[in-house]
Design goal:
61 residues; mainly alpha; 2 helices; elongated; Transposase
């Protein structure tokens, strides 16, 4: 939950990752989790798009 609050703080203030207040987790932890979540969203979106258009990379294997 603290990582989520840290991300909201960054979005709200426009601060840099390393400028997180001391009561939040380390900036590397917040950054890594944010990056992983963004990548998951991109991959999920791509998979949904392929399925909606009838493409599946498993076809032909």
């Amino acid at each position: 939950m603290m990582v989520f609050c840290a991300e909201l703080s960054l979005l709200r203030t426009g601060r840099y990752w390393r400028a997180l207040p001391g009561d939040f987790p380390k900036w590397r932890t917040v950054h890594a989790r944010d990056r992983a979540q963004r990548l998951k969203c991109v991959l999920d979106h791509g998979r949904t798009e392929r399925q909606e258009h009838g493409y599946d990379w498993f076809e032909g294997l």
